[in-house]
Q: What sequence folds into this?
């Protein structure tokens, strides 16, 4: 079992270039960002590819393909600048022209969003979550748990250091809110909802004071023939 702790990885989706009509944007945590047009309202959107059997994909925003390299399984962009307002987004095979999933986003100024491409291909769908949240209290961090495995049962996220689960009976594609926990080091486990079986272990997980974290479970509990995307956990720093 592999656990990955992921910050923004520059090579993963875009060549850090997000084309939206008449304007060029880069990831918002890049000090060399191109300044937006004066008075243009901005939102921040991250993309994550969680479909374990999808081919290399393209991402189209407002009729323009935004990725110069394929959007592959487990790719994560970090937050990118989007114009606020109504945006259209679609997904399809990188070397094709067909659309397998599309959606319309209504992005609010200065708000943060995460979009997870989930489910099995070609039934992929975007799971859209508004990430904007109040800062945690002193000495605390905020975490949430997302179950993104299309064939795994409902699960609990538990910490050896806590009596109650951090997340209970989490279902596939169920949107979760951030919750506060004391900052510190945790040994996490993902267990079946009845508590009878440990599915994954996530040891030595550090939640720093003031941080926001998304713990995800992705991949197949029982991969189909020829697919190596086993069930794994990943921790994203929001």
A:
């Amino acid at each position: 079992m592999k656990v990955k702790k992921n910050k923004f990885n520059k090579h993963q989706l875009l060549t850090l270039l997000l084309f939206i009509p008449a304007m060029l944007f880069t990831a918002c945590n890049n000090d060399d960002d191109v300044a937006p047009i004066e008075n243009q309202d901005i939102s921040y959107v991250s993309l994550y590819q969680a479909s374990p059997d999808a081919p290399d994909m393209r991402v189209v925003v407002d009729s323009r393909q935004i990725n110069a390299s394929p959007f592959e399984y487990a790719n994560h962009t970090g937050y990118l600048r989007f114009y606020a307002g109504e945006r259209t987004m679609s997904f399809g095979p990188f070397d094709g022209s067909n659309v397998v999933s599309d959606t319309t986003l209504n992005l609010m100024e200065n708000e943060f969003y995460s979009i997870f491409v989930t489910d099995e291909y070609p039934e992929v769908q975007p799971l859209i979550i508004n990430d904007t949240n109040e800062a945690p209290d002193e000495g605390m961090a905020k975490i949430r748990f997302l179950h993104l495995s299309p064939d795994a049962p409902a699960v609990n996220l538990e910490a050896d250091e806590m009596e109650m689960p951090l997340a209970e009976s989490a279902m596939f594609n169920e949107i979760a809110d951030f919750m506060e926990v004391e900052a510190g080091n945790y040994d996490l486990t993902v267990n079946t909802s009845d508590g009878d079986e440990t599915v994954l272990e996530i040891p030595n997980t550090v939640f720093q004071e003031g941080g926001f974290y998304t713990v995800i479970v992705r991949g197949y509990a029982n991969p189909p023939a020829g697919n190596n995307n086993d069930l794994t956990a990943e921790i994203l720093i929001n």
Observations:
- Residues 140-237 form a domain with the Immunoglobulin-like fold (CATH 2.60.40).
- The radius of gyration is 18 Å.
- The chain has two domains: 3-130, 140-237.
- The chain is about 0% helix and 45% strand.
